[in-house]
Amino acid sequence: MTSTHGLPSSRSWSISMTRHRRAAATIAALVAVIVLLPSLTAAELTLNYYEKTCPKLEEIVSDVVITKQITNPTTAAGTLRLFFHDCVVGGCDASTFVSTNAFNKAERDADDNLSLPGDGFDAVIRAKTAVELQCPGVVSCADILALATRDLVTMVGGPYYHIRLGRKDALVSTAASVVGNLPSPNMTVDQLIGTFAKKGFTVQELVVLSGAHTVGFSHCSEFASRIYGYGGRGQNAFDPSMHPRYAAALQMACANYTKDPTIAAFNDLMTPGKFDNKYYQNLLRGMGLLASDNVLVTDERTRPYVQLYAANQTAFFNDFAHAMEKLSVLGVKTGSKGEIRRRCDEFNNLST
Ligand code: HEM
User: What S-S linkages are listed for this chain (predicted)?
Assistant: First the structure.
């Protein structure tokens, strides 16, 4: 039905508009469902999920991890990093705990995960054992990891935040799934922003989550290209954006790193074991350790947040707490999408 001008008549115009609107409404509904799906799953988590089935859960986990941190002070940093690596690869589902077997190379053995220290795994496995004694077969390793991380962050001076519970443990864990999901120290800011954006994090959240590098250490191989032979200008040439004395101290500390790859340096030289905003103050003074830390201060998009958090620890703590709550519900599995693993390092069905 066309008008004399070759345009649709007003009736067919309105029919086609109605069809258009219906189609648009259907597409909008579909988009809403797709966008809402991950958060619907996360919304199934609750603060009191184990109130009836394991009422002492939080107490048990914090007792175990606090003892572990006192005996092994590297536990907090190790667990925080482990949590990040677990969540950004397929969701917070303890998939990083599963051991490789003859049929499957698991996440833990992916190149990017080989440097995850044993302390974090050990803290969670000990907590799981203690929890199993009181409430067998009820609490997931994924929930224990989330609680342990929060407790350890708080214990070393960081902010407290709420952990909603009810995550199930993953039914799959493959080394291949790690590829392309984790940031690496030599990424450009664009690549870092892109890697975080893929997981739903903003530029500000990239900066605030990087504040986790206020604790722990990095092996020399992770920043060697910044302190030796930088720009092909001789063995002792270092990245000129580094504080010269800081670079010289790192050059000395790492002198033997090729022979002894275990040599490492503190991420935050000033207060290495304390969760505070010194990381950002260091960045402003050319004392960021990894290239990926340093670029946060050289790029215009990220520098304002570095300045904000360097000046205001309360802002850092508030934003870090929010970002950690967001990280802790990333891609969580509920219902039949996962299981409550009996042991964190094995699927219940060993043939999978
Ligand atoms: C922005 C991108 C990031 C990059 C490129 C990056 C890279 C690294 C690297 C290379 C190390 C040293 C590993 C080693 O030598 O053993 C490290 C350590 C660490 N990372 Fe990150 N990371 C990033 C973001 C994060 C985030 C978002 C968190 C947590 C929320 C985190 C937590 C940690 C912690 C706590 C350590 C110290 C681990 C320890 O002492 O055992 N990192 N990171």
Answer: 54-135, 87-92, 141-344, 220-254
